[in-house]
């Protein structure tokens, strides 16, 4: 299961346990002429109010060379997406999809009140800043989302005195665990070399000699 799907399932379960929620549907794919227009994450009644909820969980790195504002500086680990692009997609595509005629047909039997609907998003993220660089986090970014740092592959020698672990992607959501098989710097380099050569930035865990735990990305691109 993809990481995003796992997050959805966690949140769906939380909603199911809420007595104020009357569940309707989730992962509703909308088609027109056999072409997928998009998907609604979930719809439900909350205290008799019709709610459309979109769920987002992202990993963003702060690169001041990307864009012209702090909001534009937050980009995906492989530079293929950004916070601004996701916000635009929510506003211009995902939320408007609810009012497409095909969606109204889908919900016609339920006699839902589209005029008084509430559209919401749960937007969770883990944010990473450049290694050994202080960043002033401005609103609307939540500073509690800062989870670690990122560093270029060729600069890893600066942290070679530590122990390392490379979690599988399904465990990127997890807090750092102490009871994993930590490896030396040299073995760590071998483990991530394939990712770097194929232009993938892995999420990694680090344990210092004083047992301090940190989460970080190793990137292949220059900044």
Write up what this structure looks like.
This protein is α/β, with parallel strands linked by helices. It has 2 domains: 3-126, Trna Endonuclease, Chain: A, domain 1; 151-219, no CATH class. The protein is 20% helix and 34% strand. It contains 4 helices and 9 strands. Strands 1, 2, 3, 4, 5, 6, 7, 8 and 9 form a 9-stranded mixed sheet that branches. β1 and β2 (35-46) form a beta hairpin. The radius of gyration is 21 Å and the shape is elongated. The mean pLDDT is 94.
Features:
about 35% strand; 2 domains; Trna Endonuclease, Chain: A, domain 1; about 220 residues; nine-stranded mixed β-sheet
Tell me briefly what this model is.
The protein is of the alpha/beta class and 223 residues long.
Percent helix, as a range, is 10-25%
The H/E string reads: HEEEEHHEEEHEE
Uncertain spans, ≥5 residues at pLDDT below 50? none
Q: Rounded to an integer, what's the Rg over CA atoms?
A: 21 Å
Beta strand count: 9
Strand content: 25-35%
Shape: elongated
Mean pLDDT: 94
């Amino acid at each position: 299961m993809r990481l995003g799907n796992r997050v959805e399932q966690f949140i769906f379960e939380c909603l199911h346990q809420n007595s104020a929620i009357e569940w309707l549907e989730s992962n509703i794919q909308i088609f027109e002429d056999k072409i997928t227009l998009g998907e609604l994450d979930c719809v439900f009644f909350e205290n008799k109010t019709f709610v459309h909820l979109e769920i987002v969980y992202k990993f963003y790195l702060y690169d001041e060379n990307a864009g012209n504002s702090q909001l534009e500086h937050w980009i995906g680990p492989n530079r293929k997406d950004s916070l601004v692009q996701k916000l635009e997609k929510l506003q211009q595509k995902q939320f408007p999809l609810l009012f497409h005629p095909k969606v109204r047909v889908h919900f016609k039997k339920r006699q839902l009140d589209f005029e008084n609907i509430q559209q919401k998003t749960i937007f969770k993220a883990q944010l990473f800043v450049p290694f050994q660089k202080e960043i002033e986090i401005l609103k609307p970014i939540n500073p509690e989302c800062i989870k670690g740092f990122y560093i270029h592959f060729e600069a890893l020698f600066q942290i070679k005195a530590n122990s390392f672990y490379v979690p599988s992607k399904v465990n990127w959501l997890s807090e750092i665990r102490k009871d994993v098989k930590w490896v030396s710097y040299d073995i760590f380099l071998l483990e991530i070399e394939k990712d770097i050569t194929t232009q993938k930035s892995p999420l990694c865990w680090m344990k210092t000699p004083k047992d301090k735990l940190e989460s970080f990305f190793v990137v292949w691109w220059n900044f």
